[in-house]
Amino acid sequence: MKVLPGGGAAMSGPVLRKLQGFSRLEEADAAALAMCEAGTRLVPAGTDLIREGDRPEGMLAITEGFACRYKLRENGARQIMAYLIPGDVCDLDISVLNRMDHAIGTLTTCRVARIAPEASRDLRSRPALARGLHRAAIVDEAILREWIMNLGRRSAVERLAHLFCELLVRMRAVGLTCGNSYDLPITQLDLADTTGMTSVHVNRSLGELRRAGLIERKGKRLTLCDLARLMEMAEFRPNYLHREMPTAA
Amino acid sequence: MKVLPGGGAAMSGPVLRKLQGFSRLEEADAAALAMCEAGTRLVPAGTDLIREGDRPEGMLAITEGFACRYKLRENGARQIMAYLIPGDVCDLDISVLNRMDHAIGTLTTCRVARIAPEASRDLRSRPALARGLHRAAIVDEAILREWIMNLGRRSAVERLAHLFCELLVRMRAVGLTCGNSYDLPITQLDLADTTGMTSVHVNRSLGELRRAGLIERKGKRLTLCDLARLMEMAEFRPNYLHREMPTAA
DNA sequence: GCATAACTATAACAAATGTTTCAATGTCGG
DNA sequence: CCGACATTGAAACATTTGTTATAGTTATGC
Fold it and tell me: Nearest chain B Cα to A23, which residue?
Protein backbone atom coordinates (compact mmCIF):
# COMPACT_ATOMS: atom_id res chain seq x y z
CA MET A 1 0.00 0.00 0.00
CA LYS A 2 2.05 2.84 -1.24
CA VAL A 3 1.28 6.41 -0.32
CA LEU A 4 1.04 8.55 -3.38
CA PRO A 5 2.05 12.19 -3.58
CA GLY A 6 -0.82 14.24 -2.19
CA GLY A 7 -1.65 17.67 -3.49
CA GLY A 8 -5.34 17.01 -3.47
CA ALA A 9 -5.77 15.89 -7.03
CA ALA A 10 -7.75 12.95 -5.72
CA MET A 11 -10.16 14.95 -3.59
CA SER A 12 -10.69 17.51 -6.32
CA GLY A 13 -12.12 14.85 -8.59
CA PRO A 14 -15.14 12.73 -7.74
CA VAL A 15 -15.50 13.94 -4.16
CA LEU A 16 -15.78 17.55 -5.22
CA ARG A 17 -18.13 16.60 -8.00
CA LYS A 18 -20.37 14.64 -5.70
CA LEU A 19 -20.58 17.34 -3.04
CA GLN A 20 -21.34 19.97 -5.66
CA GLY A 21 -24.46 18.00 -6.38
CA PHE A 22 -25.61 18.60 -2.81
CA SER A 23 -24.40 22.10 -2.05
CA ARG A 24 -23.23 25.15 -3.97
CA LEU A 25 -19.49 25.20 -3.33
CA GLU A 26 -17.18 28.21 -3.73
CA GLU A 27 -13.65 28.15 -5.06
CA ALA A 28 -12.42 28.32 -1.48
CA ASP A 29 -14.42 25.22 -0.57
CA ALA A 30 -12.85 23.32 -3.43
CA ALA A 31 -9.44 24.50 -2.31
CA ALA A 32 -10.10 23.41 1.26
CA LEU A 33 -11.13 20.00 -0.01
CA ALA A 34 -8.00 19.73 -2.09
CA MET A 35 -5.82 20.64 0.88
CA CYS A 36 -7.33 18.32 3.41
CA GLU A 37 -6.07 14.95 2.41
CA ALA A 38 -3.42 13.33 4.50
CA GLY A 39 -2.20 11.04 1.75
CA THR A 40 -3.70 8.87 -0.91
CA ARG A 41 -3.10 5.14 -1.04
CA LEU A 42 -3.63 2.63 -3.78
CA VAL A 43 -5.19 -0.37 -2.05
CA PRO A 44 -5.53 -3.80 -3.68
CA ALA A 45 -8.84 -5.61 -3.89
CA GLY A 46 -9.97 -7.59 -0.88
CA THR A 47 -8.23 -5.44 1.71
CA ASP A 48 -9.81 -4.18 4.90
CA LEU A 49 -9.57 -0.43 5.29
CA ILE A 50 -11.07 -0.64 8.75
CA ARG A 51 -11.90 -3.68 10.82
CA GLU A 52 -14.77 -4.29 13.16
CA GLY A 53 -13.64 -3.24 16.61
CA ASP A 54 -11.23 -0.57 15.40
CA ARG A 55 -11.45 2.87 16.90
CA PRO A 56 -10.96 5.08 13.89
CA GLU A 57 -10.93 8.83 13.48
CA GLY A 58 -11.18 11.29 10.69
CA MET A 59 -12.65 10.40 7.34
CA LEU A 60 -11.94 8.24 4.34
CA ALA A 61 -12.75 9.12 0.76
CA ILE A 62 -12.82 6.70 -2.15
CA THR A 63 -11.66 8.31 -5.35
CA GLU A 64 -11.33 5.22 -7.52
CA GLY A 65 -12.72 1.70 -7.32
CA PHE A 66 -15.44 0.05 -5.25
CA ALA A 67 -15.33 -0.55 -1.51
CA CYS A 68 -18.04 -1.66 0.88
CA ARG A 69 -19.23 -1.81 4.44
CA TYR A 70 -19.80 -5.37 5.56
CA LYS A 71 -20.22 -7.79 8.44
CA LEU A 72 -19.44 -11.48 8.71
CA ARG A 73 -21.26 -14.31 10.40
CA GLU A 74 -19.39 -16.95 12.31
CA ASN A 75 -19.84 -19.41 9.46
CA GLY A 76 -18.12 -16.95 7.14
CA ALA A 77 -21.25 -15.63 5.46
CA ARG A 78 -20.79 -12.02 4.49
CA GLN A 79 -23.40 -9.30 4.18
CA ILE A 80 -22.56 -6.07 2.42
CA MET A 81 -24.47 -3.09 3.80
CA ALA A 82 -23.25 -0.32 1.57
CA TYR A 83 -21.14 0.35 -1.46
CA LEU A 84 -18.56 3.08 -1.35
CA ILE A 85 -17.99 4.29 -4.87
CA PRO A 86 -15.76 7.10 -6.17
CA GLY A 87 -16.72 10.35 -4.51
CA ASP A 88 -18.08 8.69 -1.39
CA VAL A 89 -16.78 10.00 1.90
CA CYS A 90 -17.18 7.98 4.99
CA ASP A 91 -17.28 9.53 8.29
CA LEU A 92 -15.53 7.64 11.02
CA ASP A 93 -17.27 9.60 13.72
CA ILE A 94 -18.46 6.35 15.12
CA SER A 95 -15.45 7.01 17.29
CA VAL A 96 -17.55 9.70 18.97
CA LEU A 97 -19.22 6.79 20.55
CA ASN A 98 -17.29 3.62 20.53
CA ARG A 99 -15.72 1.13 18.17
CA MET A 100 -16.59 0.18 14.61
CA ASP A 101 -19.49 -2.25 14.57
CA HIS A 102 -18.73 -3.27 10.98
CA ALA A 103 -15.77 -3.42 8.64
CA ILE A 104 -14.94 -1.48 5.51
CA GLY A 105 -13.07 -3.30 2.78
CA THR A 106 -12.19 -2.93 -0.87
CA LEU A 107 -13.99 -4.92 -3.54
CA THR A 108 -11.56 -3.82 -6.25
CA THR A 109 -8.29 -1.96 -6.30
CA CYS A 110 -9.13 1.42 -4.79
CA ARG A 111 -7.58 4.82 -4.52
CA VAL A 112 -8.31 5.95 -0.99
CA ALA A 113 -7.75 9.38 0.52
CA ARG A 114 -7.44 9.72 4.26
CA ILE A 115 -8.60 12.89 5.96
CA ALA A 116 -7.16 13.53 9.39
CA PRO A 117 -9.48 14.49 12.26
CA GLU A 118 -8.25 18.10 12.37
CA ALA A 119 -8.62 18.51 8.63
CA SER A 120 -12.08 17.01 8.87
CA ARG A 121 -13.02 19.62 11.46
CA ASP A 122 -11.69 22.34 9.16
CA LEU A 123 -13.92 21.08 6.40
CA ARG A 124 -16.95 21.18 8.65
CA SER A 125 -16.21 24.75 9.64
CA ARG A 126 -17.02 25.79 6.07
CA PRO A 127 -20.81 25.98 5.96
CA ALA A 128 -21.24 24.97 2.33
CA LEU A 129 -18.98 21.96 2.72
CA ALA A 130 -20.60 20.98 5.99
CA ARG A 131 -23.99 21.12 4.31
CA GLY A 132 -22.79 18.97 1.44
CA LEU A 133 -21.31 16.36 3.75
CA HIS A 134 -24.40 16.37 5.93
CA ARG A 135 -26.69 15.85 2.98
CA ALA A 136 -24.49 13.09 1.64
CA ALA A 137 -24.74 11.39 5.03
CA ILE A 138 -28.53 11.69 5.05
CA VAL A 139 -28.67 10.11 1.61
CA ASP A 140 -26.40 7.28 2.78
CA GLU A 141 -28.88 6.56 5.52
CA ALA A 142 -31.77 6.68 3.06
CA ILE A 143 -29.90 4.12 0.96
CA LEU A 144 -29.68 1.82 3.97
CA ARG A 145 -33.46 2.01 4.31
CA GLU A 146 -34.01 1.33 0.64
CA TRP A 147 -31.71 -1.69 0.86
CA ILE A 148 -33.86 -3.00 3.69
CA MET A 149 -36.86 -2.63 1.39
CA ASN A 150 -34.89 -4.40 -1.31
CA LEU A 151 -33.96 -7.35 0.88
CA GLY A 152 -37.29 -7.67 2.57
CA ARG A 153 -39.81 -7.10 -0.16
CA ARG A 154 -38.26 -7.63 -3.59
CA SER A 155 -37.60 -10.86 -5.48
CA ALA A 156 -34.11 -11.85 -6.57
CA VAL A 157 -34.41 -10.34 -10.05
CA GLU A 158 -36.01 -7.19 -8.71
CA ARG A 159 -33.25 -6.75 -6.15
CA LEU A 160 -30.58 -6.86 -8.80
CA ALA A 161 -32.53 -4.58 -11.11
CA HIS A 162 -33.01 -2.08 -8.30
CA LEU A 163 -29.36 -2.15 -7.35
CA PHE A 164 -28.30 -1.52 -10.95
CA CYS A 165 -30.67 1.44 -11.22
CA GLU A 166 -29.38 2.92 -7.98
CA LEU A 167 -25.79 2.56 -9.09
CA LEU A 168 -26.57 4.22 -12.41
CA VAL A 169 -27.79 7.31 -10.59
CA ARG A 170 -24.90 7.34 -8.16
CA MET A 171 -22.27 6.73 -10.83
CA ARG A 172 -23.79 9.40 -13.05
CA ALA A 173 -23.53 11.89 -10.18
CA VAL A 174 -19.76 11.52 -10.30
CA GLY A 175 -19.50 11.43 -14.07
CA LEU A 176 -18.70 7.74 -14.35
CA THR A 177 -21.48 6.73 -16.71
CA CYS A 178 -21.75 6.80 -20.45
CA GLY A 179 -25.39 6.82 -21.45
CA ASN A 180 -26.95 4.00 -19.48
CA SER A 181 -23.78 2.05 -18.95
CA TYR A 182 -21.04 2.05 -16.36
CA ASP A 183 -18.24 -0.12 -15.04
CA LEU A 184 -19.39 -2.53 -12.37
CA PRO A 185 -16.09 -4.15 -11.43
CA ILE A 186 -17.44 -6.62 -8.90
CA THR A 187 -18.08 -10.35 -8.99
CA GLN A 188 -21.32 -12.28 -8.81
CA LEU A 189 -20.25 -13.39 -5.36
CA ASP A 190 -20.07 -9.76 -4.26
CA LEU A 191 -23.51 -9.18 -5.74
CA ALA A 192 -24.77 -12.20 -3.82
CA ASP A 193 -23.39 -10.86 -0.54
CA THR A 194 -25.08 -7.56 -1.33
CA THR A 195 -28.51 -8.88 -2.21
CA GLY A 196 -28.67 -11.63 0.38
CA MET A 197 -28.58 -14.50 -2.07
CA THR A 198 -26.15 -17.18 -3.23
CA SER A 199 -23.88 -16.62 -6.18
CA VAL A 200 -25.68 -19.43 -8.01
CA HIS A 201 -28.94 -17.60 -7.75
CA VAL A 202 -27.33 -14.32 -8.76
CA ASN A 203 -26.11 -16.07 -11.86
CA ARG A 204 -29.56 -17.40 -12.64
CA SER A 205 -31.16 -14.01 -12.09
CA LEU A 206 -28.59 -12.11 -14.13
CA GLY A 207 -29.22 -14.55 -16.95
CA GLU A 208 -32.91 -13.83 -16.67
CA LEU A 209 -32.33 -10.09 -16.91
CA ARG A 210 -30.00 -10.60 -19.84
CA ARG A 211 -32.39 -12.87 -21.73
CA ALA A 212 -35.17 -10.36 -21.17
CA GLY A 213 -33.01 -7.76 -22.92
CA LEU A 214 -32.84 -5.54 -19.86
CA ILE A 215 -29.12 -5.61 -19.23
CA GLU A 216 -25.92 -6.55 -20.99
CA ARG A 217 -22.56 -7.26 -19.46
CA LYS A 218 -19.34 -7.17 -21.45
CA GLY A 219 -16.43 -7.78 -19.12
CA LYS A 220 -16.84 -5.28 -16.32
CA ARG A 221 -19.09 -3.01 -18.34
CA LEU A 222 -22.74 -3.07 -17.42
CA THR A 223 -25.32 -1.61 -19.78
CA LEU A 224 -28.92 -1.05 -18.80
CA CYS A 225 -30.40 -1.64 -22.25
CA ASP A 226 -33.98 -0.91 -21.32
CA LEU A 227 -33.84 1.41 -18.36
CA ALA A 228 -37.54 2.20 -18.44
CA ARG A 229 -38.56 -1.42 -18.08
CA LEU A 230 -35.81 -2.09 -15.57
CA MET A 231 -36.99 0.77 -13.36
CA GLU A 232 -40.56 -0.37 -13.67
CA MET A 233 -39.87 -3.96 -12.74
CA ALA A 234 -37.81 -2.91 -9.71
CA GLU A 235 -40.23 -0.12 -8.78
CA PHE A 236 -37.18 2.09 -8.65
CA ARG A 237 -38.14 5.55 -7.43
CA PRO A 238 -34.94 7.56 -7.05
CA ASN A 239 -36.42 10.11 -4.67
CA TYR A 240 -34.43 8.59 -1.81
CA LEU A 241 -31.20 9.53 -3.56
CA HIS A 242 -32.25 13.16 -3.65
CA ARG A 243 -30.96 13.70 -7.16
CA GLU A 244 -32.64 14.10 -10.51
CA MET A 245 -34.56 11.25 -12.05
CA PRO A 246 -32.55 9.54 -14.72
CA THR A 247 -34.11 9.99 -18.12
CA ALA A 248 -34.88 6.62 -19.61
CA ALA A 249 -32.91 7.55 -22.72
CA MET B 1 -56.04 12.90 18.12
CA LYS B 2 -56.36 15.04 21.12
CA VAL B 3 -53.61 17.31 22.32
CA LEU B 4 -52.84 16.70 25.92
CA PRO B 5 -51.66 19.31 28.38
CA GLY B 6 -47.92 19.71 27.91
CA GLY B 7 -45.60 20.60 30.73
CA GLY B 8 -42.96 18.17 29.63
CA ALA B 9 -43.98 15.20 31.70
CA ALA B 10 -43.76 13.10 28.57
CA MET B 11 -40.29 14.17 27.57
CA SER B 12 -38.97 13.81 31.09
CA GLY B 13 -39.74 10.14 31.07
CA PRO B 14 -38.33 7.66 28.56
CA VAL B 15 -36.64 10.26 26.34
CA LEU B 16 -34.63 11.63 29.22
CA ARG B 17 -33.81 8.15 30.39
CA LYS B 18 -32.64 7.07 26.97
CA LEU B 19 -30.43 10.10 26.39
CA GLN B 20 -28.89 9.72 29.84
CA GLY B 21 -27.61 6.40 28.64
CA PHE B 22 -25.64 8.17 25.94
CA SER B 23 -24.50 11.37 27.60
CA ARG B 24 -24.15 12.75 31.12
CA LEU B 25 -27.01 15.22 31.41
CA GLU B 26 -27.28 18.04 33.93
CA GLU B 27 -30.42 19.22 35.65
CA ALA B 28 -30.59 22.07 33.17
CA ASP B 29 -30.52 19.64 30.27
CA ALA B 30 -33.43 17.74 31.73
CA ALA B 31 -35.29 20.99 32.23
CA ALA B 32 -34.63 22.03 28.63
CA LEU B 33 -35.95 18.69 27.45
CA ALA B 34 -39.06 19.07 29.59
CA MET B 35 -39.69 22.55 28.20
CA CYS B 36 -39.26 21.79 24.55
CA GLU B 37 -42.37 19.91 23.65
CA ALA B 38 -44.97 21.64 21.59
CA GLY B 39 -47.79 19.36 22.67
CA THR B 40 -48.31 15.69 23.21
CA ARG B 41 -50.90 13.73 21.28
CA LEU B 42 -52.42 10.36 21.87
CA VAL B 43 -52.49 8.72 18.46
CA PRO B 44 -54.44 5.54 17.69
CA ALA B 45 -52.80 2.50 16.13
CA GLY B 46 -52.40 2.44 12.39
CA THR B 47 -52.08 6.18 11.94
CA ASP B 48 -49.46 7.90 9.84
CA LEU B 49 -47.51 10.50 11.76
CA ILE B 50 -45.71 11.54 8.59
CA ARG B 51 -46.32 10.46 5.03
CA GLU B 52 -43.87 9.86 2.25
CA GLY B 53 -43.50 13.12 0.34
CA ASP B 54 -44.21 15.33 3.34
CA ARG B 55 -41.82 18.13 4.12
CA PRO B 56 -41.61 17.98 7.89
CA GLU B 57 -39.63 19.99 10.39
CA GLY B 58 -38.60 19.71 13.99
CA MET B 59 -38.58 16.40 15.78
CA LEU B 60 -40.96 13.77 17.06
CA ALA B 61 -40.55 11.77 20.22
CA ILE B 62 -42.41 8.60 21.09
CA THR B 63 -43.10 8.37 24.78
CA GLU B 64 -45.54 5.45 24.78
CA GLY B 65 -46.32 2.70 22.29
CA PHE B 66 -44.64 1.39 19.17
CA ALA B 67 -44.30 3.27 15.89
CA CYS B 68 -42.26 2.48 12.81
CA ARG B 69 -40.66 3.80 9.66
CA TYR B 70 -41.97 2.01 6.60
CA LYS B 71 -42.38 2.01 2.83
CA LEU B 72 -45.01 0.41 0.64
CA ARG B 73 -44.76 -1.31 -2.72
CA GLU B 74 -47.37 -0.71 -5.38
CA ASN B 75 -48.96 -4.07 -4.63
CA GLY B 76 -49.45 -3.00 -1.02
CA ALA B 77 -46.53 -4.96 0.44
CA ARG B 78 -45.08 -3.12 3.39
CA GLN B 79 -41.53 -3.14 4.68
CA ILE B 80 -40.76 -1.76 8.10
CA MET B 81 -37.28 -0.26 8.35
CA ALA B 82 -37.18 0.77 11.99
CA TYR B 83 -39.11 0.59 15.20
CA LEU B 84 -39.65 3.72 17.21
CA ILE B 85 -40.15 2.73 20.82
CA PRO B 86 -40.63 4.88 23.90
CA GLY B 87 -37.72 7.26 24.27
CA ASP B 88 -36.92 7.31 20.58
CA VAL B 89 -36.59 10.71 19.03
CA CYS B 90 -36.76 11.07 15.32
CA ASP B 91 -35.15 13.87 13.60
CA LEU B 92 -37.08 15.29 10.72
CA ASP B 93 -34.04 17.04 9.36
CA ILE B 94 -34.62 15.26 6.14
CA SER B 95 -36.24 18.58 5.42
CA VAL B 96 -32.72 19.99 5.22
CA LEU B 97 -32.67 18.21 1.96
CA ASN B 98 -35.98 17.40 0.51
CA ARG B 99 -39.10 15.43 1.24
CA MET B 100 -39.64 12.33 3.31
CA ASP B 101 -38.66 9.24 1.36
CA HIS B 102 -40.56 7.00 3.75
CA ALA B 103 -43.49 7.20 6.11
CA ILE B 104 -43.71 7.01 9.88
CA GLY B 105 -46.78 5.37 11.36
CA THR B 106 -48.02 3.98 14.65
CA LEU B 107 -48.23 0.24 15.22
CA THR B 108 -50.11 0.68 18.50
CA THR B 109 -51.71 3.58 20.28
CA CYS B 110 -48.86 6.00 20.88
CA ARG B 111 -48.17 9.04 22.93
CA VAL B 112 -46.24 11.36 20.64
CA ALA B 113 -44.50 14.59 21.56
CA ARG B 114 -43.78 17.11 18.87
CA ILE B 115 -40.75 19.35 19.15
CA ALA B 116 -40.87 22.53 17.09
CA PRO B 117 -37.88 23.47 14.91
CA GLU B 118 -36.85 26.36 17.18
CA ALA B 119 -37.06 24.22 20.28
CA SER B 120 -35.06 21.54 18.54
CA ARG B 121 -32.33 24.08 17.79
CA ASP B 122 -32.36 25.09 21.45
CA LEU B 123 -31.80 21.50 22.46
CA ARG B 124 -28.87 21.19 20.12
CA SER B 125 -27.28 24.29 21.56
CA ARG B 126 -26.78 22.39 24.81
CA PRO B 127 -23.63 20.31 24.26
CA ALA B 128 -24.59 17.37 26.45
CA LEU B 129 -28.01 17.08 24.86
CA ALA B 130 -26.58 17.49 21.38
CA ARG B 131 -24.11 14.71 22.11
CA GLY B 132 -26.86 12.43 23.37
CA LEU B 133 -29.03 13.04 20.33
CA HIS B 134 -26.09 12.58 17.99
CA ARG B 135 -25.13 9.29 19.57
CA ALA B 136 -28.70 8.08 19.47
CA ALA B 137 -28.77 8.90 15.75
CA ILE B 138 -25.54 6.99 15.15
CA VAL B 139 -27.01 3.97 16.91
CA ASP B 140 -30.17 4.23 14.81
CA GLU B 141 -28.01 4.02 11.71
CA ALA B 142 -26.13 1.05 13.13
CA ILE B 143 -29.47 -0.65 13.68
CA LEU B 144 -30.33 -0.16 10.02
CA ARG B 145 -27.11 -1.95 9.09
CA GLU B 146 -27.79 -4.80 11.49
CA TRP B 147 -31.27 -5.17 10.04
CA ILE B 148 -29.71 -5.51 6.60
CA MET B 149 -27.55 -8.29 8.02
CA ASN B 150 -30.67 -9.81 9.51
CA LEU B 151 -32.63 -9.77 6.26
CA GLY B 152 -29.77 -10.85 4.06
CA ARG B 153 -27.99 -13.52 6.04
CA ARG B 154 -30.22 -14.95 8.76
CA SER B 155 -32.94 -17.57 8.51
CA ALA B 156 -36.51 -16.85 9.51
CA VAL B 157 -36.13 -18.14 13.06
CA GLU B 158 -32.81 -16.39 13.51
CA ARG B 159 -34.26 -13.12 12.29
CA LEU B 160 -37.02 -13.22 14.88
CA ALA B 161 -34.64 -14.30 17.62
CA HIS B 162 -32.29 -11.45 16.77
CA LEU B 163 -35.08 -8.90 16.72
CA PHE B 164 -36.31 -10.03 20.13
CA CYS B 165 -32.80 -9.74 21.59
CA GLU B 166 -32.36 -6.27 20.15
CA LEU B 167 -35.68 -5.12 21.55
CA LEU B 168 -34.80 -6.49 24.96
CA VAL B 169 -31.72 -4.27 25.08
CA ARG B 170 -33.55 -1.24 23.77
CA MET B 171 -36.54 -1.67 26.06
CA ARG B 172 -34.27 -2.23 29.03
CA ALA B 173 -32.53 1.06 28.27
CA VAL B 174 -35.79 2.88 28.92
CA GLY B 175 -36.81 0.77 31.88
CA LEU B 176 -39.57 -1.13 30.14
CA THR B 177 -38.36 -4.65 30.86
CA CYS B 178 -38.87 -6.92 33.79
CA GLY B 179 -36.14 -9.53 33.84
CA ASN B 180 -36.04 -10.93 30.33
CA SER B 181 -39.58 -10.00 29.43
CA TYR B 182 -41.25 -6.97 27.96
CA ASP B 183 -44.45 -5.95 26.21
CA LEU B 184 -44.31 -6.47 22.47
CA PRO B 185 -47.66 -5.03 21.48
CA ILE B 186 -47.48 -5.79 17.77
CA THR B 187 -49.04 -8.42 15.56
CA GLN B 188 -47.49 -11.27 13.62
CA LEU B 189 -48.27 -9.34 10.49
CA ASP B 190 -46.17 -6.45 11.76
CA LEU B 191 -43.37 -8.88 12.55
CA ALA B 192 -43.66 -10.25 9.03
CA ASP B 193 -43.35 -6.80 7.50
CA THR B 194 -40.32 -6.23 9.70
CA THR B 195 -38.48 -9.43 8.92
CA GLY B 196 -39.36 -9.66 5.25
CA MET B 197 -41.53 -12.74 5.55
CA THR B 198 -45.22 -13.64 5.42
CA SER B 199 -47.35 -13.76 8.53
CA VAL B 200 -47.83 -17.49 8.01
CA HIS B 201 -44.15 -18.08 8.16
CA VAL B 202 -43.79 -15.81 11.18
CA ASN B 203 -46.37 -17.94 12.90
CA ARG B 204 -44.52 -21.14 12.02
CA SER B 205 -41.21 -19.70 13.21
CA LEU B 206 -42.63 -18.32 16.45
CA GLY B 207 -44.06 -21.76 17.14
CA GLU B 208 -40.63 -23.22 16.58
CA LEU B 209 -39.04 -20.81 19.06
CA ARG B 210 -41.81 -21.52 21.55
CA ARG B 211 -41.55 -25.30 21.22
CA ALA B 212 -37.78 -25.03 21.68
CA GLY B 213 -38.45 -23.30 24.99
CA LEU B 214 -36.71 -20.11 23.90
CA ILE B 215 -39.62 -17.71 24.13
CA GLU B 216 -43.05 -17.50 25.60
CA ARG B 217 -45.86 -15.17 24.68
CA LYS B 218 -48.79 -14.46 26.96
CA GLY B 219 -50.99 -11.84 25.37
CA LYS B 220 -48.72 -8.95 24.52
CA ARG B 221 -46.06 -10.04 26.95
CA LEU B 222 -42.95 -11.59 25.45
CA THR B 223 -40.55 -13.53 27.66
CA LEU B 224 -37.13 -14.64 26.48
CA CYS B 225 -36.97 -17.81 28.54
CA ASP B 226 -33.50 -18.86 27.51
CA LEU B 227 -31.73 -15.68 26.55
CA ALA B 228 -28.32 -17.30 26.32
CA ARG B 229 -29.44 -19.83 23.73
CA LEU B 230 -31.51 -17.24 21.92
CA MET B 231 -28.52 -14.91 21.60
CA GLU B 232 -26.36 -17.74 20.45
CA MET B 233 -28.73 -18.97 17.77
CA ALA B 234 -29.18 -15.43 16.41
CA GLU B 235 -25.50 -14.60 16.80
CA PHE B 236 -26.67 -11.51 18.62
CA ARG B 237 -23.75 -9.28 19.47
CA PRO B 238 -25.10 -6.07 20.98
CA ASN B 239 -22.02 -3.99 20.26
CA TYR B 240 -23.88 -2.12 17.53
CA LEU B 241 -26.32 -0.78 20.13
CA HIS B 242 -23.48 0.75 22.10
CA ARG B 243 -24.93 -0.24 25.44
CA GLU B 244 -24.05 -2.87 27.98
CA MET B 245 -24.37 -6.53 27.18
CA PRO B 246 -27.49 -7.99 28.70
CA THR B 247 -26.66 -10.58 31.28
CA ALA B 248 -28.19 -13.87 30.36
CA ALA B 249 -29.93 -13.98 33.73
C1' DG C 1 -72.78 -9.06 26.55
C1' DC C 2 -73.07 -9.81 21.80
C1' DA C 3 -71.66 -9.26 17.18
C1' DT C 4 -67.93 -8.29 14.50
C1' DA C 5 -63.53 -7.82 13.16
C1' DA C 6 -58.79 -8.72 13.96
C1' DC C 7 -55.53 -11.92 15.14
C1' DT C 8 -53.45 -16.65 15.76
C1' DA C 9 -52.82 -21.38 14.40
C1' DT C 10 -52.35 -25.02 11.06
C1' DA C 11 -52.58 -27.73 6.81
C1' DA C 12 -51.65 -28.78 1.87
C1' DC C 13 -49.58 -27.39 -1.92
C1' DA C 14 -46.67 -24.12 -5.01
C1' DA C 15 -42.82 -21.33 -5.94
C1' DA C 16 -38.44 -19.36 -4.92
C1' DT C 17 -34.05 -19.95 -3.43
C1' DG C 18 -30.12 -22.80 -1.60
C1' DT C 19 -26.64 -26.79 -2.23
C1' DT C 20 -23.56 -29.45 -4.59
C1' DT C 21 -21.15 -30.37 -8.47
C1' DC C 22 -18.87 -29.76 -12.73
C1' DA C 23 -17.48 -27.67 -17.10
C1' DA C 24 -16.27 -23.56 -19.71
C1' DT C 25 -14.19 -19.28 -19.79
C1' DG C 26 -11.45 -15.51 -18.37
C1' DT C 27 -7.37 -13.27 -15.95
C1' DC C 28 -2.85 -12.70 -14.47
C1' DG C 29 1.94 -13.51 -13.06
C1' DG C 30 5.96 -15.48 -14.60
C1' DC D 1 2.56 -18.15 -24.00
C1' DC D 2 1.60 -21.27 -20.04
C1' DG D 3 -0.37 -22.74 -16.01
C1' DA D 4 -2.80 -21.60 -11.90
C1' DC D 5 -6.62 -19.64 -10.12
C1' DA D 6 -10.75 -16.93 -10.06
C1' DT D 7 -14.98 -16.29 -12.23
C1' DT D 8 -19.06 -17.46 -14.89
C1' DG D 9 -22.65 -20.68 -16.47
C1' DA D 10 -25.55 -24.32 -15.65
C1' DA D 11 -27.85 -28.83 -14.14
C1' DA D 12 -30.14 -31.83 -10.53
C1' DC D 13 -31.91 -32.00 -6.37
C1' DA D 14 -32.97 -30.25 -1.38
C1' DT D 15 -34.82 -26.88 1.56
C1' DT D 16 -36.97 -22.80 2.81
C1' DT D 17 -40.45 -19.77 2.27
C1' DG D 18 -44.84 -18.20 0.03
C1' DT D 19 -49.95 -19.03 -1.10
C1' DT D 20 -54.43 -20.19 -0.22
C1' DA D 21 -57.73 -21.78 2.70
C1' DT D 22 -60.06 -22.60 6.95
C1' DA D 23 -60.97 -22.86 11.88
C1' DG D 24 -60.24 -21.36 16.51
C1' DT D 25 -59.29 -17.39 19.58
C1' DT D 26 -59.02 -12.92 21.27
C1' DA D 27 -60.06 -8.05 21.30
C1' DT D 28 -63.34 -4.31 20.51
C1' DG D 29 -67.30 -1.37 19.53
C1' DC D 30 -71.92 -0.80 20.37
Answer: B97
